[in-house]
Amino acid sequence: MRTLSGTLGRLWDTVAEPVLGHLGLDAQPAAGEPWPRLWWCPTGLLSFLPLHAAGRGGPDSGTWVMDRAVSSYTPTLRALARARAGLTAGARGTRPAPLVVALAETPGAAPLPGVAREAEVLAELFPGGRLLSGPDATVDAVGGALEAHPWVHFSCHGVSELLTPSRSGLVLYDGRLTVSDAAARRPAAPELAVLSACSASRGGTRLSDEAVQLAAAFQLAGYPHVIGTLWPVADKLATRVTEAFYGALAKDVSGGRPIDPAAALHAPVRALRDRYTAAPHLWAAHIHTGP
């Protein structure tokens, strides 16, 4: 914890504060004012670090990125432009029917108690979706179902292969949906992919200058918005983030507004930062990739 907290402080001093100062983002927005948006495009080993969580001091110090702007990431500037071009207004005002891939029990892996609750949240807020769980959540079944659902939520184990990142993947009932598999998919009208799995936004050490990781692969497949994690996350806290995140999106949809996944993620992560400031490994892993 001390190492990560120290790293966040150094990131603030050397990267974040100079960037925010240059952009004139020197204070938290006033109540009712829109939050500024900031996109990070890190390269090399910097891509392993949570720039959105850079900061030091207490939660009221004002010396944190997340107290001044809503952060997003992009693997490349071209990917950001492509994601913006892929946004559509077709789903505005309508409730999406998400594909939910939920594996509370996976052969050869530890159980994930929070998976059931995540599936319940999605069913409550966005009824009419499709659930693939247990033995039904195979690589072929999931791959085939992706085409029919603009939103997809994976609640399962994730594996990050640092030396061979193309083999990183989401652990399904009979194998992995790998980075290569995800990038090759071409779903119809994709909009949002939530990868509620460990290390889904972490790339490899040999190709750290190339965006070979799951979140980028789903963007390549056409999803403008992708939610992922930089390292393994605590199951209970991940479930809490998921509930708040989809609650905010449900309000966007009910109000006839375009969804804002970056803002929907920012609020619950910031709330966890306020509660667990000294333990950033508990709250700093979740990131939004996209426009």
First-last Cα distance: 31 Å
Give the DSSP E fraction (strand runs of 2 or more residues). 15-25%
- What is the β-strand count? 11
List low-confidence stretches.
89-93, 203-211
Order of helices and strands: HEEHEHEHEEEEHEHEHHE
Tally of discrete structural domains: 1
Helix count from the secondary structure assignment: 8
* CATH topology descriptor: Rossmann fold
Protein name: CHAT domain-containing protein
Domain CHAT: 7-290
Pfam families: CHAT
Organism: Streptomyces drozdowiczii
Keywords summarizing the entry:
6-stranded mixed β-sheet, 16% strand, 291 residues, Rossmann fold, 3-stranded antiparallel β-sheet, alpha/beta, 8 helices
Q: Could you explain how this protein is built, in words?
A:
With 291 residues, this protein is α/β, with parallel strands linked by helices. It has one domain (84-289): Rossmann fold, CATH 3.40.50. It has eight helices and eleven strands. It has a six-stranded mixed sheet, sandwiched between helices. Helix 3 packs parallel to helix 7 (235-254) and helix 7 (235-254) packs across helix 8. The longest helix has 22 residues, at 2-23. The protein is globular. It starts with a helix and ends with a strand.
